[in-house]
Design a protein that fits this description.
mainly alpha; Ferritin; elongated
């Protein structure tokens, strides 16, 4: 699945030659190269905002369509936590002169399409299968920026996000197994 996500990201970069901002171009280039751990502010902000947006949108859908109560509960937790991390990211990024433009990356849009098209009984499995790699990428993104990022306030935001994302990843794996 990761391979197809990276292929989709590569295709997206080819189609995004007309990107409107430098930050968008940095984020697209990082995603296409498989570098989900940028250290430059603009790319980090765009990728982190897209990650939060995907988690919120996919979890809102899961809150409505999941069949297992524990999956619905997980989705509600993700919505709440990612709304908080989005607010923190937005405040720090705006103060640093790089306000996020909340758009999904092409691979995330593809995942949302797959999730919307999942049939009733398959929905929970599709949702959880997406959450594990999405949170693995988010964990790598935040961990790397927390240690090597170029803007102190955003490093603090990234550092605060790491344990939250790790908690989500652990819970997604647990739910996926049972």
């Amino acid at each position: 699945m990761i391979r197809s996500l990276l292929l989709a990201a590569s295709c997206a970069v080819a189609l995004s030659a007309c990107a409107t901002t430098e930050a968008d171009m940095q984020a697209d280039a990082a995603a296409a190269s498989g570098d989900m751990t940028p250290t430059q502010r603009g790319a980090y902000v765009e990728m982190a905002a897209a990650s939060d947006l995907f988690e919120i949108q996919s979890s809102q859908l899961a809150e409505q369509r999941a069949t297992r109560p524990e999956v619905k509960e997980f989705a509600r937790m993700l919505i709440q936590h990612h709304q908080q991390t989005t607010a923190q990211l937005t405040a720090a990024a705006t103060a640093a002169g790089t306000p996020p433009t909340p758009d999904l990356m092409p691979m995330q849009a593809q995942m949302m399409s797959e999730l919307r098209n999942a049939s009733g009984g398959d929905f929970d499995g599709v949702y959880l299968r997406q959450q594990v790699p999405a949170h693995e990428m988010a964990l790598a993104l935040h961990s790397n920026y927390a240690s090597s990022g170029d803007t102190e306030a955003l490093r603090a935001v990234a550092s605060a996000a790491v344990p939250i994302v790790q908690q989500h990843l652990d819970r997604a794996r647990q739910l996926q197994g049972g």
